[in-house]
Specification:
This protein is mainly beta and about 1000 residues long. It is built from eight helices and 47 strands. It has a 22-stranded antiparallel beta barrel. Helix 1 packs across helix 2.
């Protein structure tokens, strides 16, 4: 008997409430197509029609929320044309099948969504779930350390995440870090852009569901599949392994049908990014600064410093998921699911800073920007304050576990389901940082505008001479966050046999969450001892690796290796303690040094109780929803009407403290919350024929602040940083709030309110065939209370000028935009040309919200309404294009992702110009090639970030005036591998 190759593209996600299974929508594979797909030598392009048929069957049935624990399309009862051939012998795979399956899912869902379906086991289009999402219409991503670190839907980061329909989170967060989901563990992804009452409460941006496989997803009795892959990073010249293996078995027993599945995956990556940066603090030189030539005047502003940052490390992610299913009867199924996902990271980050304005330097050879007499293009800095550097070494880890069990029971017209899950997730980080300083201030030649970034050199400086450096200090920290919680849901889907309201749905959900944070640190500032690097235990010394691709003069400096810092932590702790003993003896009245000595007196870092917080929260949710449908002549109309009521009960605690002159005053603070949200949803779908459908929808969402943002504690500590010359003016604040702050404060904000939104959606979808469509959607979000971190200053009557950073609610806001997407294979072309296909989408966004009223008044003294400012992180345009070729044993894809410039923060509340930082256009080009010599094995090659276009931030500080903030050069990745299935 032949082995089946029924991949996730053929058995797509059985998640969605489709419209009634009318003949107009039931595109089925013809008998000829089914027979062709079953042939031993069938090409991937010939298998697609069967994939689409299964996709449609899987997408029809129940609503998005209650299908969350359904199988991915059990085709054991599927009919095939050849009665002598079993369904297990039909092979389905390939890009064509994957795109068709995703199209069927989108088409048949009651919710507005987009999907990605893995076209093979262990083969989503990218390495992680987060990377794949960058290609979805309306999705934008942020990258850091050569991977996607944040996913935004329609420009917003407030995205709820679920795993097989259950809430999933990382540590103390309310959402999961999607980059922790390796592709090898997944069957697909769904991006919900509108909610339904039976879904877990989505964030303002929507909800992303991550889908894994179960044994009943496969029609074969036994499957073993997986893949192995190696990658190479051209920037740090490192090789890394990746792989996954899945084993699934199902069979009949005296107790009923039983299935067991285990899937394991491992990913590893080395990375090293090269960053040249200029300080975001842009200001005028002080009166004591010498300007040469004097004819250029003093009415110019420059960044306070320039520097280099090398972000580097090794990360690896193990993951395991398992599932057991048992069908004691045809209408009853019991199941158990388990998930483990881990992260490990060994990091060595190098940082260098050359001050340009501290301690009254001389600025010479000044060339002003042509036509801008208040902005500098190039200069030379001599004298002033010396440069400084550090090597920060860290070890980080994440462990997330989720165990769940449930049942599904069909009783006549009723479908009952229940699910109980427990999740525990922890994240920890240990840091050991070795700090150095230059023994003198060298000459610094700066060009602020070199290919999108600032470039500088240190002419005459010998980077390899140890005599040019001294030990500045040693820092250690620990950081521990944890989240855990129970969740339960019960759902009833009832077929009413009523033509107008064919389905009623009811359900309840309960959650019990806890989140906590503990941390501690200590720092030994030792520069006053004048110790050379060779006198410290941090050995051996060597130049930092240069991974710049050009355009930067100063690239490397002397530092101990990662092992010389993290591997010598115990010796460095003792050495720091001994050094502090000497410093305290010389400065017996300095409380800062005495406190540092006390912290280093113990072998382990002491946890700081004033930096901790703890939160516990319960929710009780109930929903009701009905599906309606009727005909207006030949036009089919259907939709959902429902509401979800959620009661949230929370308790959040922390310790506020004020530290001045070595004396700390503290107070335990506890806040409580108890509120009810009622979230209605209404949708309408109009289908004039079997190809066209028009949707309208209205929903309300409420997004809760993160647990850490609700921490009621405020921590204020005296400013003990060394004075390096005159205080430079800070353009973020008015004249009454200038000067050196006597203290800095930070913390959460117990007064934060949830972000609320009324959401309006409309879409038009036209399906030419099972793999060809064009869709367009428009949306509007009426927001209130968008949350961002803001820095403010206030004059305290006791302590004086204090600078505080904490989250605040902004005022009302709005986001509007549209999306257009299309895909097609060119089946109408002759011969080999029919293997070509294309997919493209574009998203337009415009969003703004009012600056927080209280902060606007404090900064400007004005009582007028705060102005509308652009919402951070929102690109006006995002587009994706992909060219496919799939014929016979070959399949390949070339894809381009582009995101236009966006803003990162708003410093000053001005409506006249943007005062803050932003990011320039981001563009990536990726390529993949697959060759299948036999059906059981596929050989692969891929290349990511082919263009290697640098990531570029800028700092705008006045109307028409900006400096490059930083420019980051990221690695190209090349990979070869093989996938198998038997």
């Amino acid at each position: 008997m032949k082995h089946v190759l029924l991949l996730a593209s053929a058995a797509p996600l059985a998640l969605f409430a489709a419209s009634a299974s009318t003949p107009a929508l039931a595109q089925t594979a013809t008998p000829q197509e089914q027979q062709q797909a079953a042939q031993p030598d069938a090409g991937v392009d010939e298998q697609a029609p069967v994939a689409q048929e299964r996709a449609i069957r899987s997408a029809q049935g129940r609503s998005p929320g209650t299908q969350a624990t359904e199988n991915l399309g059990d085709d054991s009862n599927a009919q095939v044309a050849d009665e002598g051939r079993s369904p297990e012998e039909i092979v389905v795979t390939g890009y064509r099948a994957s795109l068709g399956s995703a199209q069927a899912i989108k088409r048949n869902s009651d919710a507005i969504l987009d999907a990605i379906v893995a076209q093979d086991i262990g083969k989503l289009p990218d390495n992680t779930a987060a990377e794949s999402l960058a290609r979805v219409t309306g999705v934008q991503v942020n990258r850091f350390s050569d991977e996607v670190s944040q996913v935004l839907v329609r420009g917003l980061p407030d995205v709820a995440t679920t795993f097989n329909g259950r809430d999933i989170f990382t540590a103390e967060l309310r959402r999961s870090q999607l980059q922790d989901f390796p592709a090898g563990a997944l069957a697909g992804l769904e991006v919900y852009k509108s909610g339904t009452a039976d879904l877990l409460e989505p964030g303002l941006a929507g909800l992303i569901n991550v889908r894994s496989r179960r044994p009943f997803d496969f029609t074969e009795k036994f499957v073993i599949a997986g893949g192995i892959r190696g990658t190479y990073n051209d920037q740090n010249k490192k090789y890394d392994p990746l792989g996954n293996i899945l084993v699934s078995a199902r069979g009949d027993t005296p107790l009923g049908e039983v299935g067991v599945l285990v899937n394991a995956s491992y990913q590893q990556a080395h990375y090293r990014n090269a960053v040249r940066w200029a300080d975001g603090f842009v200001t005028n030189p002080s009166a004591g600064t010498t300007i040469v030539p004097s004819s250029v005047g003093r009415n110019f502003k420059i960044p306070a410093a320039v520097g280099v940052y090398n972000d580097s490390g090794k990360r690896w992610r193990p993951a395991v998921n398992a599932s057991v299913q048992w069908k004691p009867a045809s209408n009853l199924e019991l199941y158990y699911d388990f998930l483990y996902q881990g992260y490990r990271g060994d990091i060595a980050n190098d940082w260098f800073r050359a001050p340009l304005l501290d301690n009254n330097p001389t600025l010479s050879n000044i060339v002003l920007v042509d036509g801008k007499p208040d902005q500098v293009e190039t200069l030379t800095k001599t004298g002033g304050f010396r440069p400084e550097a550090y090597r920060s070494t860290q070890h980080g880890y994440t462990n997330t576990y989720q165990a769940a069990g449930g049942a599904k029971w069909d009783v006549g017209p009723a479908h009952l389901s229940t699910d109980l899950a427990y999740t525990r997730s922890e994240y920890g980080s240990d840091e050991w940082s070795f700090d150095t300083a230059w023994t003198a201030a060298p000459q610094v030649d700066v060009d602020f505008f070199v290919k999108g970034g600032s470039s500088f050199s240190l002419p005459g400086f010998d980077a390899e001479n140890p005599a040019n450096y001294k030990w500045r200090g040693y820092y250690e920290s620990i950081y521990r966050v944890e989240g855990k919680g129970w969740q339960w849901r019960g759902d009833l889907d009832l077929d009413t046999n009523l033509s107008l309201f064919p389905k009623l749905q009811f359900g309840a959900r309960w959650t019990d969450r806890e989140a906590s944070l503990e941390r501690g640190n200590r720092y030994a500032y030792t520069e006053t001892l004048g110790l050379t690097l060779a006198q410290t235990p941090a050995q051996p010394l060597g130049l930092t690796q240069n991974v710049f691709r050009g355009d930067q003069g100063f690239t490397s400096w002397l530092m101990p290796s990662r092992a010389g810092v993290a591997g010598n932590a115990e010796a460095l702790r003792q050495f720091s303690y001994d050094s502090l003993v000497k410093i305290v003896a010389a400065n017996p009245n300095d409380q800062g040094y005495r406190d540092a000595l006390a912290r280093f007196a113990t072998p382990n870092i002491q946890l700081d109780p004033f930096a901790a917080f703890f939160a516990e929260e319960q929710t009780y949710a109930f929903y009701g929803q009905t599906k309606y449908e009727f005909d207006l002549g030949a036009i089919r109309v259907d939709g959902l009407i429902g509401a979800r009521a959620v009661n949230t009960v929370g308790k959040y605690s922390g310790i506020s403290s004020v530290l001045f002159n070595g004396v700390r005053v503290s107070e335990q603070r506890v806040t409580r919350a108890n509120y009810v949200d009622v979230l209605p949803n209404v949708s309408l779908r109009i289908r004039p024929d079997d190809k066209l459908q028009v949707r309208f929808g209205f929903t309300m969402t409420r997004t809760k602040p993160e647990f850490g943002q609700l921490n009621p504690a405020l921590r204020i500590e005296q400013n003990t940083a060394p004075v390096t010359g005159p205080v430079l003016p800070d353009p973020r604040f008015p004249a009454s709030l200038q000067g050196r702050p006597v203290a800095y404060g930070s913390g959460g904000n117990p007064d934060l309110q949830p972000l609320t939104s009324k959401n309006y959606d409309a879409s038009v979808e036209y399906y030419f065939s099972q793999t060809a469509s064009i869709t367009a959607a428009a949306f509007y979000r009426d927001l209130n209370g968008f949350i961002n971190n803001y820095t403010t200053r206030t004059v305290d009557p006791v302590y004086g000028l204090i600078e505080i950073n904490r989250p605040e609610n902004s005022g009302k806001g709005r986001i509007k935009g549209f999306e257009v997407g299309a895909q097609s294979f060119f089946d109408f072309l002759p011969g080999l040309l029919s293997g070509f296909g294309v997919q493209a989408n574009v998203t337009y966004l415009k969003g703004e919200n009012r600056f927080p009223a209280a902060l606007f008044q404090a900064a400007t003294g004005s009582t007028t309404p705060a102005p509308f400012v652009t919402i951070p992180g929102l690109s006006k345009w995002t587009y994706n294009t992909a060219l496919f070729y799939e014929k016979g044993v070959i399949s390949t894809r070339l894809s381009l992702n582009n995101r236009t410039a966006f803003l990162n923060n708003q410093f000053l509340p001005t409506a006249d110009f943007y005062d803050g930082e932003g990011t320039q256009n981001i563009e990536r080009l990726d390529f993949s090639f697959n060759y299948t010599p036999i059906k059981q094995i596929t050989l692969t090659f891929d290349a990511a970030n082919i263009l290697a276009k640098p990531f570029n931030n800028y700092r705008q500080y006045a109307d028409g005036r900006s400096y490059p903030r930083d420019i980051r050069e990221e690695g190209r990745y090349y990979g070869i591998g093989a996938r198998f299935r038997f």
